[in-house]
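Objective 1.3, modelling of assemblies. Example input:
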Amino acid sequence: MTLERPTPREMLDVALAEAVTGAGEGGIPIGAALFVDGELLGSGHNRRVQLDSPIHHGETDCLMSAGRHPASVYARATMVTTLSPCDMCTGAILLYKIPHVVIGENTTFLGGEELLRSRGVTVTVLDDARCIDMMTAFIAAKPELWHEDISV
Amino acid sequence: MTLERPTPREMLDVALAEAVTGAGEGGIPIGAALFVDGELLGSGHNRRVQLDSPIHHGETDCLMSAGRHPASVYARATMVTTLSPCDMCTGAILLYKIPHVVIGENTTFLGGEELLRSRGVTVTVLDDARCIDMMTAFIAAKPELWHEDISV
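Predicted structure (tokens):
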């Protein structure tokens, strides 16, 4: 039996659940999940507030959660994130040569998508209303925290 | 009294001491230090092995050690690293808009220096023999660990 691979929207649901968990912890509501061959390898969420950490964004926290892997594993991976990846997370995707990135939305923040594409990464933007609404509400509620997270 | 600011080589000494600490822990010998207005704000080293973490490179571990800061602090910062920064650490420097990067060496590995310069970052490469020798010996001793760290 061959199991069907999850759709981009189904993978996004995992990242979105992470973002909701982060919000419940008083954190910045951005989540990510890493799939390899259709299987979930790890997931995570922004933990700037929770860990007092400027390096635990959704994607990097997800990579840490997924653990150490050789390049051959990342070569079959898809990174799914609720928000367009910032420069740091763009760089993490490039470092590990993850070939496909699925993005919930890039309306509230546009990250390094052009750089990703220029380096051969396939970028899929879902324009997910749940992700847009969540970030819009967060930015309105805590603009200073959001500005700290993207250093503006 | 105005204290003199440390020279690039003196700042590199702090990053190099971190790299040596990392080597002593059985880790990958890359270290970094963050200076603001000539004062040390934090330092760190690659902890892939120590934390089983793919996101704790020298520069990112240093940023985590330095803690959370607004953009106005990073705007006065210099990131010092023993080795040319990988794509992830390049992205972290860009995210936080750190205007100056001092690099021990880029002989054993050349990272995102061109991207940094294209985004307005001043990049100073010291061609430090101690850094070159340390990385050369490490890569010869543990090539698989090094390849994992740069995902090749």
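The beta strands of chain B are 31-36, 39-45, 77-83, 100-105, 122-125.
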